[in-house]
Amino acid sequence: MMRAMEEMDQENIFDGLSSVVEGCRLPVKMRKGDEWPLAEIISIKDVNGVTYYYVHYVDYNKRLDEWVTEARLDTRKIQYPRKDGQSNAGTGVNTPIKKLGSGTTTIPAVPVPAASSRPSSPVGPPELVNGNAFLAAALNKKMNRKRKAPPPVHTVPNHAEPAPEVPVQVVRTTKSTSLTIPDVPIAAEGDLSEPPSSDRRLTGSMVAHNDDIVTRMKNVEMIELGYHRIRPWYFSPYPQELIHFPCIYICEFCLKYRKSRKCLERHLAKCNVRHPPGNEIYRKQSISFFEIDGRKNKVYAQNLCLLAKLFLDHKTLCYDTDPFLFYVMTVFDDRGFHIVGYFSKEKVSTEDYNVACILTMPPYQRKGYGKLLIEFSYELSKFEGKTGSPEKPLSDLGLLSYRSYWSQTILEILVNLKPVDENERPQITIMEICELTSIKKEDVISTLQNLNLINYYKGQFIISLSKETIDNHMQAMSKRKIRIDSKCLHWTPKDWSKRSK
Ligand SMILES: [Zn+2]
């Protein structure tokens, strides 16, 4: 009897597994923890008689995708792909990947959620109206009047903005500091929208790229880079003959790759550099930045892109690194300058982008280095006397870092604002915030809205800073131990539009 049941169970399991096909969905146990989230089968392979399934956890970032064995599949709850050929939502299967040049990341559009998810009705006492709602309502009216032309694609809803040139006043109250924006001509144009992505930068070397099954799957098991062994997150087009090895050994200084430690050791005996190429344009304590011209140091730049792609999802590689500069951040010790992260930047950006692609290497993440990279990118913009913004859309982690950087940088200014006249409220315009920080106007406004600081009071826009906001800000700033010191940046911006790139 027992035997019969066992046999039956086995048969059921067998049947269940044979029905697992690419495209179907079922609960799969994650590597860490006991969760069994819904996952999609991307690919199936047999290795020495064992079947492996490449799964994508539907509601999770692709970096968690992995090969699993049947033991981690729950075939009782299997769902089959829709017959109409439509993919189920949320898999990223049909997420278009664009080829945008070596220094470039493209990630699916992430709308600024705070602005749209907030209640649109006025909050608080009747005389204190939520500024966002007021602005949104005003903008809607204006937009409706203007809505003859087709609406822009990717418009962030409810995204109105106060006129940048209108000064903002600071109100001191017993409990908190407030800022007011005096009487408001609303100049909102709703221009926070992105241009349609298909129009963007698909020129020259930047060729559209078809998403295929190969580039959706991680292909490199492990890399060794200096002191670190790192498990990659995403596909990267390392040479086919290399990816069959259990680990790719990368020279941390010139970023050349080898198939074994022995080969790397042979390379290191010949490789004399102990720092990235290019000019060291910043040094403070152990932190340095190197500026690398993608045209002059092509091999390094391409190797950097290959390495970065392992940790950047929607970046597709193109070997034309010429139009980009690469800023590599390193930490120094007695063995050399070790790469911590980098960002790339177009030599000439027609859209005021000051970062194309940005990455902190995983071993250095969550230590404040990402914010340091961002801070440095704005420091360069300050030297150039321009405002800038990262290329959109940002990755999930990138967006979090930028939001946090923008909030802290803008709050730092608001909190320390002093009134010109003692009896008056301190005033500042949004344009002045842009000039002080080099943060682009749209990002300043969206940050103020995300922080929910804008209110409308007796005919004026007010930015009120509660004690809680200030305390939280002070606490956050105390954690930012490493900062960019502009005195340590030795750099003169070049006008690349006037020279050969
Ligand atoms: Zn080397």
UniProtKB/TrEMBL annotation:
Main localization of the protein described in the UniProt heading: nucleus
Keyword Nucleotide-binding listed: no
GO cellular component, one term: polytene chromosome interband
Gene Ontology terms for molecular function: chromatin binding; histone H4K16 acetyltransferase activity; zinc ion binding
Region span, Disordered: 82-105
EC number: 2.3.1.48
Domain of life of the source: Eukaryota
Places the protein is found: Nucleus
EC class (word): transferase
GO biological process: one example: double-strand break repair via homologous recombination
InterPro entries assigned to the protein according to its UniProt record, in alphabetical order: Acyl_CoA_acyltransferase, Chromo-like_dom_sf, Chromo/chromo_shadow_dom, HAT_MYST-type, MYST_HAT, Tudor-knot, WH-like_DNA-bd_sf, Zf-MYST
Similarity comment text for this entry: Belongs to the MYST (SAS/MOZ) family.
Designated name of the protein: histone acetyltransferase
